[in-house]
Amino acid sequence: MASASVSRPGSGGSALAFEDYSLYSNLTDDELLQLAIERSLTEMQCSGAAAVRALAMCPGTNLMLPSKPGWLAVHQAAWFGQDSCLRMLLSGMVNKRTSRGETPLLVAVSRVQQGCVQVLLENGADPEIPNYEKETPLYKACERNSAAIVAALLNHGVAVNTRCIQGWTALQETVVHSNLEICDMLLKAGAKLNLRNMYGITPLFTAAQNGQMAALRFLIKHGADVNTQADDGATALYEAAKMGHQEVVQMLLSQKADANKPGKTGMLPLHIAAQRGSDTIVSMLIPVTSKARVRRTGISPLHLAAERNRDDVLEMLIEAGFDVNAQLSEERMRLYEDRRSTALYFAIINNNTEAARMLLAAGADPNLDMFRPLMVASRMGCIQIVKLLVEHGADINAAIPTHPTTFPAVYMFSMKYLPLFKYLLDHGGHALPCFHCRYGGQPHPPLKTSQVKTSRSSPSICRWAGPIIDVLLDYVGHVTLCSRLMEHLDSYSGWSAIKEKAGNHRTTHRPSSCLRSVHRSHDQG
């Protein structure tokens, strides 16, 4: 809205008397009203109310014309808290709405202009008219946390259970601010405790979600349902656990909130607490959570703790007897490209040695996952975790079911780390199968680089071919190298000694068996 300032010539800037309308006839209604309001604000001789009265009597003046945002003079008076101006403007305008559907009463409430609210109510303003978001004056008063205005509106008999466009009631909005005085007024006026918004959320759920203990106690005291569930199945207990509100969780559990109600995701409050690393909340939920119910969810809290590196929570769950070999359900496994299934796998892929040690010490089986944890650790070059897994029975010679080879698959992932490669050979890895080839000395067909079995001839493997073959020869007797391996050795003059070694070699280490990663079974159909 434009702001005008007019001075009389030679007056030293003193304001122009409003009686002389001819001198400001070029000003708009908005500008004239602004002058009136400014006069009122500065308590000048001519009051704002008198100015408005004079302006309204001026021929050609139309105070019903809206300004650019759709506000009439009555809305502006309510905004600025001009009680006396407002009284002059009320006739025929008391319930006019802005372009956003706001009445003068709603504007006054939004600005917590208590005097204007009283004037409007006394002059017939309708307290039930909402804006276009369906927010009523009562809702706005609760949003602004004004007990006085709420009381004034309730005294005029407003409906207390009206919902805004998202289904929120005045009580729900009040709970967000934990204003018990307003909560009490609303309940005495008939507010319903368990009305849901468009997401199925009740006031108690809102209090738990926001950690508002005072409001939560108040609602429970007046009979609110502690086991209410939102449309996505989440309970107030689940939401409190997710947000880490310890006191709220304790309060809900003391009121018999059900810790075994799953949401649409199937997870329980214990799952989300483990995922968030809330060890205190986890300790409260463990005694009241059914392990049988956990099994039916298809995921253990151990998975979530391991996935997020929540070692303290992981330890608590292990000590509480949760199954360290629990596997993800088929549906949940499909969410991961590598089809992981165990908590141990999550710990290994996170390179979390301590978590892996705890799980293995508690009896975790390192051979349950399709893509073995040992392969993951070898690919990352984590010798410490590799040793830990081997010491606890990891199968060095395991294959990948979806990509079968005749040599141990773990060799494919350890060739870049020769000390690790040798460790695997020293601890039961098969070496001889690495030299088996159906083509022998005959020409080999071109390899399909998209297949796992082609890794031995990829550039990254070729660089290591000589050293790898040299290591493998120490674990076998006399072998005949196939034409492909001979090509590799011939590609670098410094590897001629290795080729000679293969021709007259005898075992110098125990023939333990090895991975055949270098030779890679490209010849398998």
From TrEMBL:
ANK repeat segments: 100-132, 133-165, 166-198, 199-231, 232-264, 265-297, 297-329, 339-367, 369-401
Domain of life: Eukaryota
Stretches of the chain forming a coiled coil according to its record: none
InterPro entries: Ankyrin_rpt, Ankyrin_rpt-contain_sf
PROSITE patterns linked to this entry: ANK_REP_REGION, ANK_REPEAT
Pfam families, alphabetized: Ank_2, Ank_4
SMART domains: ANK (SM00248)
Keywords: ANK repeat, Repeat
Gene3D superfamilies: Ankyrin repeat-containing domain
Region (Disordered): 503-525
This protein's name: Ankyrin repeat and SOCS box containing 2
Organism this protein belongs to: Poecilia latipinna
